[in-house]
Amino acid sequence: MKILLSNDDGIYAEGLRALANSLKAAGHDIITVAPAQEQSANGHAITIRTPLRVTKINNNAELGQEAYKVNGTPADCIKLALQLFADFSPDLVITGINHGQNLGYDVFYSGTVAAATEGYLQGYNSIALSLAKGKMRNFSLAASLAVKIIEEKDKLFDEKTKGSLNINFPDIAREDIQGLKVTRLAEQIYERFIEERVDPAGRSYFWFVGKKNSGFPLNTDIGAIQNNYISLTPLNCDLNDDKKIKELNPQDLI
Q: Which of 82, 146, 186, 233 is positioned for an S-S bond with 220, CB 3.0–4.6 A?
């Protein structure tokens, strides 16, 4: 397959290189276009007020046939790549492997998920890959498992419509992984989300913190990861509330 590869941790990230190596070893053609710097939690931002520059990476054997860094966001990378390398016409847009999980409502903030979503919006099947935080940081295992899943492309996506998947791997030994669950996004809520602190000069500042709640059902992405399963969540971009559209009467509003 021809694969466009990106991420939000930057062109030099360990997860990106592990994935590229595994895809190359499996015989896939890869073009990598990734941010020059880490862009975590930038969501689906695009750059409109500063020039975007694309720089080719030399000695890029780890990153596929061609590799480029962009001084922009993950979504910028996908937009640029699909225009600059239009003849490549990827079979899949793949982003990651992210350094840390992208679960529940956190997908709205994730640059990794946003880059995959951009591929989907542009008409390509796309997959976002993430490795949950753990002590092992076993990106090579996650990459090898990802390649096995990716090579089932015909089972993952409908022939007539394009799709987007969010896949998270638990950071545990291979023998401890219980399997794969097809999941939905957990309704994750943070407690005490913003904390006020004081710097050495006596000035107050704020820091996003928050404690995640627990006890999620196994059919949710967080529940699957907490129970040592790989989580695969199909996503789409339809934000319409069809129920409310039917309920609301415009004559009652004006």
A: 186
Mean of the per-residue pLDDT values of the chain? 94
> Whole-prediction pTM value?
0.94
91 alpha-carbon distance from chain centroid: 17
Domain ranges across the chain: 2-185+216-252
- pLDDT for 211 beyond 80: no
Beta strand 66-70 with 29-35: parallel, antiparallel or unpaired?
Answer: parallel
C-alpha to C-alpha distance for 46 and 130, rounded to whole angstroms? 22
- Copy the structure tokens of residue 143: 């990459």
- List C-alpha distances in Å: 248 to 238, 239, 241, 251: 19, 16, 11, 9
pLDDT tens, residue by residue, 45-57? 999 999 999 999 9
Q: What is the mean pLDDT of residues 32-36?
A: 97
Number of Cα atoms under 13 Å in the Cβ half of residue 90: 32
How crowded is residue 151: how many other Cβ atoms within 10 Å of its Cβ? 15
The answer to whether residues 184 and 149 touch, using CB atoms and an 8 Å cutoff, is no
Report pLDDT digits (tens) over 157-190.
Answer: 987 789 999 999 999 999 999 999 999 999 876 6
Instruction: Name which of 40, 111, 100, 112 is nearest 225 in CA terms.
Output: 100
Q: Give me the CATH topology for the region 2-185+216-252.
A: Stationary-phase Survival Protein Sure Homolog; Chain: A, (3.40.1210)
Would you give the DSSP letter of residue 172? S
